[in-house]
């Protein structure tokens, strides 16, 4: 077992002294970074600043117990901690402040996140995993308050899983599950539901997690007393305190932010509890100060009275640390030993200012060189066009007047010059056009890459393996197909686990996991509480640590509880780190064509719009669903797979190659050929569309039916446009509300695939009413598209063009 900080602290006085002075030095460097960072914003070099001044001491203490393999999921002010664990340099801090797009200079996000958002790189350039046990790990920060908490649960749970789960390569992710997940959160953000849901789940699961609450008494301008039922969060959490002999609850430690030795003791104890006993710990750090206020967008003098401001000045952590150092003395072998004199600390202060100024200068010069090099490569080519249009000289003059130039200014100049010389065929314009295309590709990569995986394991690269059927293939309930396929998955991939409400003991509410817990154990097939946000969070955190979690959200309607985490965290992981981290979670859910207000929603348009970065797969039956699971477990993209809720008891032929066959993403399937009209749909609605198509056939209308199967990505080979080219008519049928998923599909077909060129009639969408269905089958019939609706509306298209052949129904 890995030793803890408490067990390693038998050191000489000289080593002790060196550690203290190094902490003081790092604290001063961090503080000077905050001071200079604010000035850089106020002088216009940066857009916005949010800094960690006032939190230096507790973060230094936390860093002392943070080991290789550990993970942090945190608040966006932890710059001192990031410095202390070598995840941040002065140069990279300022590079992020300036939004430098270089991964080398700004490895946390390559300029994609505002300052104070830290991350380490978990992946090699090719998207493969690094050895995460050989480095200290920071999962990429996000701004939504408490949004980092659900992921923290999964990061901690992974350690518990790795105590019993091993697979080829697992040694790169854990050393026998001895890692801790550290979370940090601002005190006011503990008013958020995500905080309570995460802590509750952690206390139930008993995972090695340390949550630090930075309590500075305010949530921007709102005092703590207005945030929660009690001002003291530790008092509120007292009911969570574990009792002797019980395997529930957590440890709660309260400590002052300016008390350096007490902080060291608090974090040593917290580590001991978490690492040796695998229990969650809350460290409530009180009396935190904010020397510069919340951010550069306001002044804390507006809402703090003179007494509070005076107290903050007196109890500044670094000031109190300095006092403690100067007052410290110990007698060793009859000789009084001290840590440092005032002059020595003054020298450290001055050194810190020089280090920070030098780092800022280097970061600014590197960032400016990128701009200067771009100007020097483009401006001469624009100047070459002055003789071809009189306006260009004015554009150049305006550009040269700019005191500070950004990339957008260079692109604006280039595009104005190309616009002014449109229709001109000259070597000079061709040169500029070539340069524009060249630099545009670079900036496209800088600002738009890695929304989805770009590695060899991206889902689009997974080879299609068709389902194999024979004379011996059984006709079984759809649930049996997916269940037996899961059996093969758990056997084939020991790193795969599934968890959700009722997923374990009873094998999920539709029996798609029947018998799996009994066979594979309650670590790999687990029940959870009713807490969708942290079910997703478990998935994100465990996926970030090399496991392959399937997070089950019982019904599609309930995915709304975790949509914030899908949108703000999971969907942006690869993007916001520019390929530095990934979390290939599979979200398993079920829905469509059920009955009743709360079990019949189709929030697909919300998922599509809010979760770009996650694949959205909508199989029409359980065999297709099983194939998508087989596909995604070979991919490093996250995905949501929506199983057909009304398909579990319908008979399907079970493939002979369970666990092996795959359904490709971004590929449609023509399930009925036709020549008069193309009908596009997905999921449970497909069966109704097929019924309608058969009815239309009897009325002399030959309908081609297409199951899109995959909404994101969508029809990568433009096969739907080829169908429309043949039929010249298009109908999109969907159970989402008007303007929802049907609008997305229509845009993809008409705009991206240019299928409008082949239409002889207006395109038609047939969608649900804008309310949710009332209960029972009548609710579905009168709320969502029925076969009658489809037949009548599609028939009306033909009545419009040939009323004699197709007389009106009504």
TrEMBL record:
Q: Which InterPro entries match?
A: DH_E1, THDP-binding, Transketo_C/PFOR_II, Transketolase-like_Pyr-bd, Transketolase_C
Identify the domain of life.
Answer: Bacteria
Start and end residues of each Transketolase-like pyrimidine-binding domain: 476-650
Pfam family example for this protein?
A: Transketolase_C
The record's keywords, sorted A to Z, are:
Oxidoreductase, Thiamine pyrophosphate
Obligatory cofactor(s): thiamine diphosphate
Give a short account of what the protein does.
E1 component of the 2-oxoglutarate dehydrogenase (OGDH) complex which catalyzes the decarboxylation of 2-oxoglutarate, the first step in the conversion of 2-oxoglutarate to succinyl-CoA and CO(2).
Per its record, how is this protein called by name?
Answer: Transketolase C-terminal domain-containing protein
Q: Which organism is it from?
A: Chryseobacterium kwangjuense
């Amino acid at each position: 077992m890995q030793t803890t900080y408490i067990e390693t602290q038998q050191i000489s006085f000289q080593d002790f002294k060196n550690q203290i002075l190094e902490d003081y030095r790092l604290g001063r460097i961090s503080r000077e970074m905050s001071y200079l960072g604010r000035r850089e914003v106020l002088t216009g070099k940066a857009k916005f600043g949010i800094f960690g001044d006032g939190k230096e001491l507790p973060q230094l203490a936390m860093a002392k117990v943070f080991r290789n393999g550990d993970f942090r999921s945190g608040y966006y002010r932890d710059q001192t901690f990031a410095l202390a664990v070598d995840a941040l340099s002065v140069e990279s801090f300022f590079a992020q402040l300036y939004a430098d797009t270089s991964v080398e200079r700004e490895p946390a996000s390559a300029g994609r996140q505002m300052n104070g958002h830290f991350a380490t790189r978990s992946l090699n350039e090719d998207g493969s995993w690094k050895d995460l046990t050989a480095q200290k790990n920071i999962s990429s920060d996000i701004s939504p308050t408490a949004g980092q908490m659900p992921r923290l649960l999964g990061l901690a749970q992974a350690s518990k899983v790795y105590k019993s789960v091993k697979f080829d390569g697992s040694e790169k992710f854990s050393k026998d599950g001895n890692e801790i997940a550290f979370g940090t959160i601002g005190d006011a953000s503990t008013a958020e539901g995500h905080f309570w849901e995460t802590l509750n789940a952690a206390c139930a699961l008993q995972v090695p997690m340390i949550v630090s609450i930075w309590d500075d008494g305010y949530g921007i301008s709102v005092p703590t007393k207005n945030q929660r039922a009690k001002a003291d969060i530790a008092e509120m959490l007292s009911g969570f305190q574990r009792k002797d002999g019980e395997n529930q609850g957590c440890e709660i430690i309260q400590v002052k932010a300016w008390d350096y030795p007490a902080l060291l003791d608090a974090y040593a104890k917290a580590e001991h509890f978490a690492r040796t006993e695998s229990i969650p710990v809350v460290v409530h750090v009180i009396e935190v100060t904010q020397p510069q206020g919340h951010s550069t967008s306001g002044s804390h003098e507006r809402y703090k009275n003179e007494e509070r401001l005076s107290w903050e000045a007196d109890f500044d952590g670094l000031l109190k640390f300095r006092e403690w150092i100067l007052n410290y003395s110990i007698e060793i072998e009859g000789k009084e030993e001290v840590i440092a004199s005032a002059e020595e600390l003054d020298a450290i202060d001055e050194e810190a200012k020089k280090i920070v100024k030098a780092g800022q200068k280097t970061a600014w010069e590197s960032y400016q060189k990128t701009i200067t090099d771009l100007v020097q490569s483009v401006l001469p080519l624009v100047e070459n066009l002055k003789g071809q249009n009189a306006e260009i000289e004015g554009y150049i003059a305006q550009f040269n007047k700019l005191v500070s130039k950004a990339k957008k200014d260079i692109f604006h100049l280039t595009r104005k010059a190309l616009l002014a010389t449109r229709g001109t065929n000259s070597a000079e314009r061709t040169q500029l056009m070539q340069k524009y295309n060249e630099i545009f590709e670079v900036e496209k990569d800088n600002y738009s890459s890695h929304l989805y995986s770009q590695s060899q394991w991206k889902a689009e690269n997974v080879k299609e393996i068709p389902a194999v059927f024979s004379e011996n293939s059984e006709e079984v309930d759809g649930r049996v197909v997916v269940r037996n396929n899961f059996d093969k998955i758990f056997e084939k991939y020991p790193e795969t686990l599934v968890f959700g409400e009722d997923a374990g003991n009873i094998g999920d509410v539709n029996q798609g996991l029947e018998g799996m817990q009994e066979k594979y154990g309650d670590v790999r097939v687990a029940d959870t509480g009713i807490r969708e946000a942290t079910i997703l969070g478990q998935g994100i955190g465990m996926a970030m640590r090399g496991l392959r979690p399937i997070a089950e959200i019982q019904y599609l309607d309930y995915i709304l509880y975790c949509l914030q985490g899908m949108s703000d965290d999971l969907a942006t992981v690869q993007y916001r780190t520019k390929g530095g981290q990934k979390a290939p979670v599979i979200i398993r859910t079920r829905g469509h064509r059920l009955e009743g207000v709360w079990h019949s929603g189709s929030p697909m348009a919300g998922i599509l719009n809010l979760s770009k970065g996650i694949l959205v797969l909508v199989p029409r039956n359980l065999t297709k669903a099983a194939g998508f699971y087989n596909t995604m477990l070979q991919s490093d993209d996250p995905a949501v797979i929506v199983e057909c809720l009304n398909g579990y008891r319908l008979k399907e032929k079970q493939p002979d190659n369970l666990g092996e066959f795959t359904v490709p993403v971004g590929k449609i399937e023509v399930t009925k050929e036709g020549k008069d009209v193309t009908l596009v749909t997905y999921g449970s609605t497909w069966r109704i569309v097929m019924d309608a198509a058969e009815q239309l056939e009897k009325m002399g209308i030959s309908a081609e039916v297409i199951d899109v199967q995959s909404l994101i990505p969508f029809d990568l080979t433009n096969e739907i446009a080829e169908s429309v080219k043949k039929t010249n008519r298009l109908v999109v049928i969907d159970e989402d509300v008007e303007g929802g998923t049907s609008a997305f599909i229509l845009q993809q077909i008409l705009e991206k695939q240019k299928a409008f060129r082949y239409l002889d009639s207006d395109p038609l969408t047939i969608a649900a009413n804008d309310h949710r269905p009332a209960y029972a089958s009548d609710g579905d019939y009168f709320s969502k598209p029925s076969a009658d609706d489809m037949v009548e509306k599609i028939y009306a298209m033909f009545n419009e063009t040939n009323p004699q052949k197709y007389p009106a129904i009504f």
